[in-house]
UniProtKB/TrEMBL annotation:
GO MF annotation list: phosphoglycolate phosphatase activity
Protein's organism: Actinoalloteichus hymeniacidonis
Entry keyword Hydrolase: yes
GO BP annotations listed: DNA repair
Record's keyword terms, sorted: Hydrolase
Entry protein name: Phosphatase
One Pfam family here: Hydrolase
Top-level taxon of origin: Bacteria
UniProt xrefs under InterPro entries: HAD-like_hydrolase_sf, HAD-like_sf, HAD_sf
Enzyme class: hydrolase
EC identifiers of the protein: 3.1.3.18
Family annotation (PANTHER family): PHOSPHOGLYCOLATE PHOSPHATASE
């Protein structure tokens, strides 16, 4: 297994200090979007709509993952892709109203904001849901840009680095001078594709080994001190 530092406070401080901008994935690092609103139910509704159109998901597609179904729906037909996007967007906006905040994230965002450097949210979730969460949670003042998924092309979601490039451009920072905190393989791979520093965040033991295998710059099991 790759040697990846875990919960190394000194290294985290160096990464934090050296970056010109902070990029945060949304679901995980900022909050647990589906903590009280199971994603499996959203996936089931999206799949039901696909079946009602007389189509079926390919057998290799994870039928419990809304984002994987969204990609598959677009491949089946543009119309199904638009309908799947609409279903997912509506449910994500509803889900964030009961999302569970990640411990320590508000303090981290406030600390970064105090340095005067830009902060962006970069997520495969819809930007509309992110905006709702930030506004209701009082975090909007810390965020300079929200980069949600492209509603017209889900294939541009992470691990494609498109969203990272768009966010970096919007805040006027070279993406290679950004630091991303994300909790998925897709986050790490997207960051590495553009030379962006990346911290993998994993609270569950089962997620740590797969993330460490991708060789992020640091693995954190908590954001709070």
């Amino acid at each position: 297994m790759n040697h990846v530092p875990v919960d190394d406070t000194a290294l985290f401080r160096r990464l934090f200090d050296d970056a010109d901008a902070l990029l945060l994935d949304f679901d995980g690092p900022v909050c647990s979007v589906f903590a009280r609103y199971p994603a499996s139910g959203i996936a089931a509704e999206m799949n039901t709509r696909i079946q009602a159109a007389g189509r079926a998901l390919p057998p290799e597609v994870d039928a419990t993952g809304p984002h994987t179904i969204l990609r598959a729906a677009v491949d089946l037909s543009p119309e199904l892709g638009r309908e799947a996007e609409a279903i997912l967007r509506a449910h994500e906006i509803e889900a964030v109203q009961s999302a569970r905040p990640t411990s320590g994230i508000s303090e981290l965002m406030a600390s970064w904001h105090a340095t005067g450097r830009p902060l962006a949210i970069v997520s495969n979730n819809t930007g509309d849901a992110i905006e709702v969460y930030l506004a209701t949670g009082g975090l909007g003042g810390y965020v300079d840009h929200v980069q949600g998924r492209d509603p017209h092309d889900p294939n541009l979601m992470k691990p494609d680095p498109y969203l990272l490039r768009q966010a970096a451009s919007a805040i006027g920072v070279d993406v290679r001078r950004c630091l991303l905190i994300g909790d998925s393989d897709a986050d790490v791979l997207a960051a590495q594709a553009v030379g962006c520093l990346v911290i993998a965040y994993a609270t569950r033991e089962a997620n740590r080994a797969p993330l460490r295998a991708l060789n992020p710059d640091l693995l954190l099991t908590r954001l709070s001190s």
